[in-house]
Every structure is written in structure tokens, then in C-alpha cells.
Design goal:
This protein is α/β, with parallel strands linked by helices and about 130 residues long. The protein has 5 helices and 7 strands; from the N terminus they run βαβαβββαβαβα. It has helices spanning about 15-25, 40-50, 65-75, 90, 110-125; strands spanning about 5-10, 30-35, 55, 60, 65, 80-85, 100-105. Strand 4 (about 60) and strand 5 (about 65) form a beta hairpin. The chain is globular and about 40 Å long.
């Protein structure tokens, strides 16, 4: 997957994981990756810029990422939830059911597959 001139947003409060995801996205061909470590930083970023894709952790500094996921959804940005837990509708809620979930840690190949699924899902919801 080569994403020339494409940008991505990574939201994760675990810096080593965030840097690993950033490196994988750059390796996949994204030109620029913005890494943020809090929900408020992500929302600030989204108020000024619209990435082409996003990889966000479900739990960030004790908060869930629903405000960020909602903003990304409303902008039509393909989004992957990168989490240490598998999706469970009883715990995570039905809001997150449409997002591709990727377990931590992940490989470049799994990230590429999850992004492809997010892009496909985004096309379905914006068409």
C-alpha cells in the first residue's frame, strides 16, 4: 500500500507504540504522520487538519477515544482502533462496531490490512 502525499494521525499515550505505528505508516508510504498522546490534542489537530487515515487507541490517559472517533467519522477519515483489547460490544459499545480493530502489538502487514478495511468501510459510509 503506497500512500503518496497522504497524511495520518496516530493517537496513543504509549510513546513506544505510537512511534512504532508511525514508523509502519511511513514505511507504508504515508508522507506525514502526526502523533498525539491525548484526546484533547487529537481534537485540536482535527480542528485544523484532516488526515487521510487515522490509527487511534481506545484507551488514552484514562479516557476512551469516542470523541476523536466521532470527529474522524464525521470527517470521513478511515480509522483503525488500535487496542490492547478485542472489540466487545458489551464493553466498548455499539458505536465502535463499524471500526476495524487491530490488536497491540501489531505488524506492518496487519496494520496495512486494517487500514484497507477502514478505507473500504469509509467508502461505504460516505457514498
Amino acid at each position: 500500500m503506497k500512500e503518496q502525499n497522504k497524511t495520518a494521525l496516530v493517537l496513543d499515550d504509549e510513546m513506544l507504540i505510537a512511534l512504532d505505528v508511525e514508523a509502519m505508516l511511513l514505511d507504508l508510504g504515508f508522507a506525514r504522520v502526526a502523533v498525539v498522546s491525548s484526546v484533547s490534542q487529537a481534537l485540536d489537530y482535527l480542528s485544523m487538519d484532516k488526515p487521510d487515515a487515522a490509527v487511534i487507541d481506545f484507551h488514552v490517559r484514562g479516557r476512551n477515544c469516542e470523541p476523536v472517533a466521532g470527529a474522524l467519522r464525521s470527517l470521513g477519515v478511515p480509522t483503525v482502533i488500535h487496542s490492547g483489547t478485542s472489540f466487545d460490544p458489551d464493553y466498548h459499545g455499539t458505536f465502535f462496531a463499524d471500526f476495524p480493530w487491530l490488536g497491540k502489538p501489531s505488524s506492518r502487514e496487519h496494520l496495512a490490512s486494517a487500514l484497507a478495511a477502514a478505507i473500504d468501510q469509509s467508502k461505504l459510509t460516505t457514498d
